[in-house]
Amino acid sequence: KRVTLSPGATLLRGFALDQAEDILRALTPVLHAAPLRRMLTPGGRQMSVAMTSCGTWGWITDQAGYRYTRTDPTTQAPWPAMPPLLFQLASRSAAAAGFEGFQPNACLINRYEAGTRMTAHQDKDEGDITQPIVSVSLGLPILFLWGGLQRTTRAHPILLEHGDVLVWGGRARLHYHGVKPLEQGLHPLTGPARFNLTFRYVKQVA
Ligand code: MD3
Ligand code: FE
Question: In which residues is substrate bound (predicted)?
């Protein structure tokens, strides 16, 4: 089922459901090569979500700021390659939402446990806001908070469940968003956790 949340924002309910186990299997070697870690915000606070990346570019934050890098600062190695299954899922999702030819070169992997949350933010480090972002939710459900173009706009809660895919482009690309703290639970495939994958196209001039 396809739901338009606002111009540019499409929820593809259950789009990744039949591939969920294969996706999680493809993530295992990635998480081995680039372990999940809780990074520091530029303000020096530890993020509550554990993150890592695969693809040409990975997103990091530390006391110097937010940015995309070609190497993982914890291993000094290039980020692990994006598994083709993930690339294809992201590209097919974008096309299903009207964004043909999406070729993500970064996949951010977020792992949530009970109490993990993400405060309202914009995703604007990619250098090309004409490209959409595709998000895939796996495991425990969470309340996603979808705001407006200003931080103060009241956010709408949307329940994101296992297998749901969201595509954000066009006018929705710079909307503020976050998630409520994850509730405790146990999922047959992910145990006490929720994984969120976000696929991006990073355009770097340097
Ligand atoms: C709306 N992740 O990784 S996914 C993030 O559930 C992030 O882990 C959340 O926000 C999560 O940056 C939300 C849905 C999402 C992702 C990117 C967006 C919504 C978006 C970019 C622009 C607008
Ligand atoms: Fe985000």
Answer: 59, 66-68, 125, 151
Token pair 């173009």 is found at 149
Q: How far is the CA of 148 from the centre of ligand 1 (A)?
A: 13
Tell the residue nearest (CA) to atom 10 of ligand 1: 178
| CA-nearest residue, atom 12 of ligand 1 | 123
Residue recorded with tokens 């796996």: 138
Evaluate whether the domain defined by 2-200 bears CATH number 1.10.10.10.
Answer: no
Ligand 1, atom 22, lies closest to the CA of 173
Comparing CA positions, the residue from 83, 36, 84 lying closest to residue 60 is 36
Ligand number nearest to the C-alpha of 107: 1
Residue 142 CB contacts under 8 Å (≥ 6 apart), including other chains:
112, 159, 160, 179, 180, 182, 183, 194
99 in Cβ contact with 167 (< 8 Å): yes
- The DSSP bridge partners found for residue 111 are 50, 195
ipTM of the complex: 0.97
- For residue 19, the Cα-to-chain-centroid distance in whole angstroms is 17
Contact between 69 and 83 under an 8 Å Cβ cutoff? The reply is no
Of all ligands present, the nearest one to the C-alpha of 52 is 1
Tens of pLDDT, residue by residue over 122-132, are 999 999 999 99
Q: Which amino acid is at 136?
A: V
Q: Which atom of ligand 1 is nearest to the CA of 49?
A: 8
Give pLDDT tens digits for 149-173. 999 999 999 999 999 999 999 999 9
